[in-house]
Amino acid sequence: MEKENVPQDKSNLTKNNVKELLYATDENGEYTTTLSTGWEPKTIALSNSIDEINERIADAKQQVLDGEASPIIYFMELNKMDLNILSSYVGLWKWRIKRHFKPSVFAKLNDKTLKKYADTFTISVEELKNSITK
């Protein structure tokens, strides 16, 4: 893309006066860097991704409120983690974490295990246990 054709569309980046560094060709055909305030297709894709993340968080919260899942699933979504990432951070097998998604199993977890989750989510054990139900 030529430097003068780099898109300067309004985007989520312009809210904070942030510009994105891109590579483009100059008038001599040489690669150079230039700044862009945004590109509409990228803005749409980013907005759709954020909407999907927010829906997943809301669904997880509702599952917890309905007693179908433990708070771990909500905080995992809130922190934009998946099972693999959470497993590596907490240091537990994925199958164990899946068991901890069950409210009945979660209720029996010891403080040491709860602390691992709380530290991973950067919250207290008390917040992990009670913050969603309030």
UniProtKB/TrEMBL annotation:
<keyword id="KW-0175">Coiled coil</keyword>
<protein>
    <recommendedName>
        <fullName>Phage tail protein</fullName>
    </recommendedName>
</protein>
<feature type="coiled-coil region">
    <location>
        <begin position="43"/>
        <end position="70"/>
    </location>
</feature>
